[in-house]
Amino acid sequence: MKHLFGTMTMIRLRRDAVRMASILAFCAAMAMPAPAGAAETKEFKFDHFSTGFPLTGAHETVACDKCHVRGEFKGTSTQCGECHNGTVAQAKSLRHIKSNNACGDCHVTTAWSPARFEHASLTNAICSNCHNGTTAQGKPPNHIATAGTCDDCHIVVSWLAVHFDHSSVTGTCVSCHNGTSATGKTPTHIASSDQCQDCHTTSNWAGAAFDHSGITANCSSCHNGSTATGKTPTHIATTAECDQCHMTTAWLPAGFDHSGVTGSCSSCHNGTTATGKTATHIATTADCGQCHLTTAWIPASFDHSSVTGSCSSCHNGTTATGKTATHFLTSVECAECHTTTAWIPTLKYRHSSPDYPGDHSAGVTCLNCHKGNSESVTWTYATYRPDCAGCHAGRFKADSHKKVDSPTILYTVSELRDCSGACHRYTDSTFTTIAQSRTSHHRPSDGGW
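and the corresponding structure tokens:
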């Protein structure tokens, strides 16, 4: 037993001697001072690069025995985590990003921070687990309100250069598109209480599908030729707002309201801008409004005062009422008998023919003389035209027209052909002394024979 104990003691002493020799050799190699009482040895520098694990950065100042525990050199691990385990050296903190990366994937030996971060090996794929404002930068106070995760918009190589996806946005458009967080309405934007999405889409800002329902201003504030299509150069002159004629669903057709028109009728009704006078229209210098109404083109209330043509140019049976089939055959114009205020009754016609015997009393109609219903008159007793006897010779009574009482001498029709002329009764056949003078005894206007 005593021999066994002595043997074990010798073995332990020999092992301790070998370990001490190793330490002395390593310390000599690293130019470190030898332990007290140790024999002096020759100083030399150990080339750690030859081990395949060169010491760089902060590792250069670490004492050898921090890594080579109990003097063991061979088999010392080169993996960061073997030392950075929280016991030998500093390890991951409790709030360290969860990752299966080795320390060297992000950190360098010169400094623990800043770290070169690599997302590829993250074990918790949800960005907000780290980007929560504590572990790593999170959403700032002015970040767009959204339920989306970071990688819905951001990429790992750059925080900016965002690829935005509206699908997870929880706020209204204007909560971001306010001119600060994101592009808002421009100064020239149409005045509207609509939300952005009422007109715009998330895929394209331009090419908006416009909805007029939320517009707060009048039409011309946008339809001014700059913000939106305005009146064309050929548009009807008017002070009316667009919606008095046009609808928001379609620009044409327009329901026209004349109340706001500032120009004359013909400035539009010229055959180009709007319907004008037809080729068969009555020749007149009057403006449309003197005859037509804005509520209906026909019927028209006609005013003859501005007519430039003759009556028959319109009253020809086509453009306007003309002579009826039984109308008196004449080449004279309508106005010689008719008035513009009424077609009937007619004016009293003034005969211009030198054969006209004069106006007769009431009761004599045109057809009494114009038996053929025409201007041409057939004299009953043509021999006596144009005197009264030309018509009335058949009614002449010789015994009523004495020339001399005794002996009785009577006038002939030829002698008294002009009934309205002088008629004398003489004392004798010499016809030198007038017994009685009768002047204009029968006049057409007397009303009796």
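(Above: one complete record from the training split.) The chain has a mean pLDDT of 79.
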